[in-house]
Write a structure and sequence with these properties.
- There is one protein chain.
- The strands form three sheets. Strands 5, 6, 7, 9, 10, 11 and 12 form a seven-stranded mixed beta sheet that branches. Strands 1, 2, 3, 13, 14 and 15 form a six-stranded mixed beta sheet that branches.
- The protein has two domains: 126 residues, no CATH class; 157 residues, no CATH class.
- With 306 residues, it is an alpha+beta fold.
- The protein is built from four helices and 15 strands.
């Protein structure tokens, strides 16, 4: 009888241990699952907040009506309630800061008395001047000056203008008409940075200039048609050129890059050696290195700084 009682006691003890072990394992499993749910929601919230800040900053750059509304729309699209967000424009319209919070309900931890937790995210996107461009620069140069948005500028002079055989053209990656034509149509296939020196392309280059620029203009097939004050960012008529220190140089000479700017091509005017390229100075955004110290010539980068 004593032996039977001992066996029964051991069975009872084992059952209790099994129950305790199962409870501990279930609790640990619930914690692991809920930690995963919170981590997943945190990552989604961070992505949504970053996207909203970047979109809002670009909205500021293009002077759209309501950058804050743009940021709110991006939050909504990415599953974050914009009413739980704080959005503020930085001083001098230098960027935008978006702070969000999202309530996450626990799945299993509710059995242990834990209902939910809050995940937070913050992103600041700043508008900075581009200091380097990797591929795409067109072989035209603008001498350093105070440029005004929406104003028509000459990107390449015609015969009788220019200086000592230079008309605003550049020899990027090589010299001659074929290289010059390729760079107009496709952009220079290399990186240029503020502080680099580039070589001027001598001669009027009338034929390759006229045919290539006209082709760029004809490539725009957006509807409605792009204009200088309303254009698709990838429009072929929007070209990026360098701002240089001086174009009053003799023959093929080196000039230093001070910055980058974008122009909306309007037309190639004149016949023969009187070939003149003109475009409107526009705001634009691109990828590349940027910083807050560099003078901004209208070509900017939007960078997350937080």
């Amino acid at each position: 009888m004593k032996i039977l009682n001992q066996i029964r006691n051991k069975k009872g003890t084992t059952m209790v241990l099994h129950v305790i072990t199962f409870t501990v394992i279930a609790a640990c499993a619930s914690i692991v699952v809920d930690i995963g749910v919170v981590a997943y929601k945190k990552a989604d919230t961070v992505k949504a907040t970053d996207a909203a800040a970047l979109a809002g900053a670009q909205s500021i750059l293009y002077e759209e009506d309501n950058p804050i509304m743009t940021a709110r729309e991006y939050l909504q699209k990415n599953g974050v309630n914009p009413d739980d967000a704080n959005i503020e424009i930085l001083g001098d319209n230098a960027g935008i800061k978006v702070t969000t919070k999202t309530n996450v309900n626990y799945v299993f931890a509710q059995l242990l008395g834990f209902e939910s937790t809050e995940v937070n995210a913050s992103a600041t996107a700043k508008i900075m001047a581009i200091t380097s461009v990797y591929k795409g620069i067109r072989p035209f140069a603008i001498e350093e000056q105070d440029l005004e948005f929406g104003t028509l500028y000459t990107l390449k002079e015609g015969g009788g203008s220019g200086s000592n055989g230079n008309y605003g053209g550049l020899a990027l990656g090589g010299t001659g008409a074929n290289n010059y034509r390729f760079n107009i149509l496709n952009g220079y296939d290399g990186e240029l940075k503020v502080g680099d020196y580039v070589t001027t392309e001598t001669g009027n280059m009338s034929n390759p200039t006229k045919s290539s620029v006209n082709e760029l203009i004809s490539r725009c097939n957006h509807h409605p048609r792009c204009t200088y004050d309303s254009f698709n960012p990838d429009c072929s008529r929007v070209v990026t050129v360098v701002i240089v220190d001086d174009l009053d140089v003799n023959g093929r000479s080196s000039v230093q890059i001070l910055g980058f700017a974008s122009f909306f091509l309007i037309a190639v005017e004149g016949q023969g050696n009187e070939c003149v390229v003109k475009g409107y100075f526009v705001r634009n955004v691109t990828q590349g290195e940027s910083n807050e110290v560099q003078k901004n010539y209208g070509l900017s980068g939007v960078k997350l700084t937080q």
